[in-house]
Design brief:
By secondary structure, the chain is α+β, with helices and mostly antiparallel strands. Helices cover 52% and strands 19% of the residues.
Length: 112
Amino acid sequence: MFFQIVRCFQLHAHKLAADRTLPILTLYTKDPCPLCEHAKEKLEPFRRRFVLQQVDISLPENRIWLDRYRLDIPVFHLNGQFLMKHGVDAALLDKKLQEAEKQHERKSDLLK
């Protein structure tokens, strides 16, 4: 049942991003993670520009991410691509979000 709920949440996050044309920012985290909490605070100025999806690497179904990022969290991916680790680089995030926004504008212009 839990796995169905998690999968439903993931699908909902992707649908929200598609509907609103917002990129998906994935945060690989665990509980507790004080660095992750601090990183989420640094995301606040950008929060309307992406959909945040959190992946708890300590859950059994996320073992691959635990093996990969055990000592590096918080880790962020933007639209499935590695973006940054150990914290939030606001300048890099802003730059990548601008690139995603411009790419979306170009796609929208092609559809007109």
